[in-house]
Design brief:
Layout lengths: L14 H11 L5 H21 L33 E2 L4 E4 L5 E3 L2 E2 L10 H8 L8 E5 L1 H4 L14 H22 L3 E5 L2 H4 L15 H12 L4 H4 L2 E5 L19 H4 L6 E4 L7 H11 L10 E7 L9 H11 L8 E5 L17 H25 L3
Parallel strand pairs: 5-6, 6-7, 7-8, 8-9, 9-10
Antiparallel strand pairs: 1-4, 2-3
Helix pairs in contact: 1-2, 3-5, 5-7, 11-12
Bound molecules: zinc ion.
Length: 380
């Protein structure tokens, strides 16, 4: 069997789709008009990802406001915000280029998702000829909707976390039930939790262990057979071609991250300075028995923030090197991150989102070909 390979989830939204989102936010077009544009972008994403030869595809998250906010708002500007939320929550992240992304703030209970990932997947599956994966957001990220200090009157933090875990479990179960072959949980806040950025108070609260425990409260509701296809994605962020936590040493994150009882991990690595050190850390800390499932490490071999397209032999070389440290039966390949986790993304290093989209499919093609080469070299 060749090495497994899959993408994280998102693709840059075409400029026409981003213009339609802005027009919808201004009240100039109806939701049906926006939905038609989203459908077009999803169909194009699936067709072009299938053409790369990838064994499993996604719809590029073209309907989602972002990887983190799809359950709670229709657009990133806040049109269609879910009940009991207002726009002025805490920063999720401040990126290295100075821009930031902000979360809504919970004002009361109960907390409920208004959109589940399966709502999108059900529309996209009929467009696909190959198996599809679905990314979902981690409960740890959405736990930041609750104010950092104090309690909301009439809705305790513990009740919120109980509701959040129920909604996150439903999100995953419904994605599998709709037909997702694999479901990966986006956990970009894991590495950021170890950053201690004084401009962003939650990062200084040593919340990583709490995040791991919260996510396991959901992951442990799934059987070992289900968890084989339930993954975790870690990265230092990827928005506007910038990152938020690449300066955090992976040694701060990986020993804790592999305590989550997921069956596979999509790990940013192509843009790391010292890749062999990280391969070694993965080999040391990933488990061959995480409560009944072996943990497969999909190492990042493609950098979505750079317009330079990796060659298949660069991809193969990285994987052959990784196999020195990670058992090859527990090794896979991925991209470092989604290509555009937020719906509004200029992709400045690329020049435009449309160009970045073309580049993304070239990069995925290189990953797929590189995986074939590495699989031959590793005699898989
Ligand atoms: Zn990511």
């Amino acid at each position: 069997m060749p090495l497994p390979t899959e993408n994280v989830g998102s693709l840059p939204r075409p400029a026409t789709l981003q213009a339609a989102i802005a027009a919808y936010d201004r009240g100039e077009i109806a939701f049906a008009d926006l939905a038609a544009e989203q459908d077009r972008a999803c169909r194009d994403s699936i067709e072009r990802m299938e053409a790369t030869g990838a064994p499993i595809v996604s719809d590029g998250e073209q309907r989602a406001s972002s990887f983190a906010t799809y359950p709670i708002t229709d657009t990133l500007a806040g049109t269609g915000l879910a009940d009991n939320l207002v726009g002025d929550g805490q920063y999720f992240a401040i990126f290295d280029d100075g821009h930031h992304r902000q979360l809504p703030r919970l004002t009361g209970g109960p907390f409920r998702y208004k959109t589940f990932a399966s709502d999108y997947l059900e529309k996209s599956l009929p467009m696909a000829n190959k198996p599809m994966k679905q990314a979902v957001i981690a409960p740890s990220m959405l736990s930041l909707l609750y104010p950092l200090d104090g309690e909301i009157d009439g809705y305790s933090r513990e009740q919120f976390l109980a509701d959040l875990c129920d909604e996150a479990e439903k999100d995953i179960r419904q994605a599998f039930a709709a037909g997702a072959t694999r479901v990966s949980i986006d956990f970009t806040e894991g590495r950021l939790a170890a950053k201690n950025d004084p401009r962003n108070p939650w990062t200084g609260r040593a919340m990583l262990q709490h995040f791991i425990e919260l996510n396991n409260r959901v992951i442990d509701r799934f059987s070992a057979d289900e968890r084989v296809n339930l993954g975790i994605h870690t990265c230092p962020g990827g928005d506007m071609d910038s990152v938020h936590s690449a300066d955090v040493d992976y040694a701060e994150l990986l020993p804790s991250m592999f305590k989550m009882n997921a069956g596979y991990f999509l790990i940013q690595l192509a843009s790391e300075q010292d890749k062999e050190r990280v391969y070694r850390l993965i080999g040391e800390h990933s488990r061959d028995d995480a409560d009944g499932v072996p943990q497969v490490a999909f190492v990042g071999v493609i950098d979505p923030l750079s317009p330079t397209v990796e060659t298949p032999s660069q991809v193969a070389d990285a994987l052959v090197t990784a196999a020195k440290y990670i058992p090859k039966e527990r090794l896979g390949a991925t991209d470092d991150c989604g290509f555009s986790p937020f719906s509004i993304d200029d992709k400045p290093k690329h020049g435009s989102p449309d160009f970045a989209r073309d580049v993304a499919f070239q990069k995925i093609t290189s990953r797929v070909r590189g995986v074939e080469q590495a699989s031959e070299q590793l005699q898989l």
